[in-house]
Design a protein that fits this description.
By secondary structure, the protein is an alpha/beta fold. It folds into two domains: 92 residues, Udp-n-acetylmuramoylalanyl-d-glutamate--2,6- Diaminopimelate Ligase, Chain: A, domain 1 (3-Layer(aba) Sandwich); 186 residues, Hexapeptide repeat proteins (UDP N-Acetylglucosamine Acyltransferase, domain 1), CATH 2.160.10.10. The chain has five helices and 34 strands.
């Protein structure tokens, strides 16, 4: 998430009431999770296991819960609770905006786009030309939709990420300040849910077609001309490259990559990253030919045992 204008290190420290290490005028242009950080971004880290990764990331401002040596060219924000203070910054720079109308006045809707009844379009949403948005669709704030997009009834774009920190009193949610981006010529079926990024973007690439009842987790990037069948569940921070096919009831773990033109057969659990250009099946996932051979061999076990008697 980029700020509307560049802040200084001192200004950020004042918002969250914490110490800082570095020049008070050190520029801060945004905040992001570690997998999408860029120069000028804040990243937070609250566990020693990830200190080195955060300090050596592309982020130039590290929100951390321990005083450590500051890497050259970077700055630190010293906090007793970086998770809490990251949330404070999200609420400050992208606060929730109430709306009491079906289509927010700040929304931009392109020529020849049709919006069916009972659809909600939030603040600062942008919808391109020649789109068809069916009834009872909810499009949350800051969502961007390209041209020639079809979205069927009951779909939700931009719900919060499923991202929590366990505390003694219960689960504390990491507030989502990111966006959903739907590129041109995408088709989205009925009752789909596509969560916005925590701080970055959840993106559906040009020409991709999504069946009914599909869930796409936060910060996931789906490439161009993919096909995703019904009841598939895609976790957060997944990269699905171009022209991938996911058949029905596929489920994925988070943080993996599915290579271009891969085909994932129905009910497969994608437990790890897989190469493109191959067909896969099963849980744990394997190339489909090998997995189907294994299943065929399992059926032969009774025959083999009878021969051993």
């Amino acid at each position: 998430m980029k700020f509307s204008k560049t802040q200084t290190l001192k200004e950020i420290a004042t918002i969250i009431n914490c110490e800082y290490v570095g020049n008070e005028n050190f520029p801060v242009s945004g905040m992001n999770e570690i997998h999408v950080v860029e120069s000028g971004d804040i990243v937070f880290v609250d566990h020693p296991k990830y200190y080195e990764k955060a300090l050596n990331s592309a982020a130039t401002i590290v929100l951390i819960n321990k005083k450590v040596d500051c890497p050259e060219g970077k700055a630190l924000l010293i906090s007793d609770d970086p998770f809490r203070d990251f949330n404070t910054l999200t609420k400050h720079f992208r606060p929730f905006q109430f709306s009491n109308v079906s289509i927010a006045s700040s929304a931009k809707i392109g020529e020849n786009t049709i919006i069916q009844p009972n659809t909600f379009i939030g603040n600062h949403v942008s919808i391109g030309k020649n789109c068809l948005i069916h009834s009872n669709v909810s499009i949350y704030d800051h969502t961007i939709i390209g041209d020639n997009v079809i979205i069927h009834a009951g779909t939700v774009l931009g719900a919060d990420a499923f991202y929590y920190k366990k505390r003694a009193e219960g689960f504390d949610q990491l507030i989502s300040g990111g966006r959903v981006i739907i590129e041109d010529n995408v088709g989205i079926g009925a009752l789909c849910t596509i969560d916005k990024g925590v701080s970055g973007d959840t993106t559906i690439g040009e020409g991709t077609k999504i069946d009914n009842q599909v869930h796409v987790g936060h910060d996931t990037v789906i490439g161009k001309k993919c096909l995703i069948a019904s009841q598939t569940g895609i976790a957060g921070c997944v990269i699905i490259e171009d022209e991938v096919t996911l058949w029905g009831q596929v489920g994925t773990t988070s943080g993996i990559t599915i290579g271009a033109k891969a085909v994932i057969l129905g009910q497969t659990g994608v437990t790890k990253s897989v190469e493109g250009g191959k067909s896969y099946f099963g849980t744990p996932i394997e190339e489909s030919r090998e997995k189907l051979k294994q299943l065929a061999n399992i059926k032969k076990i009774p025959e083999i045992l009878n021969k051993l008697k």
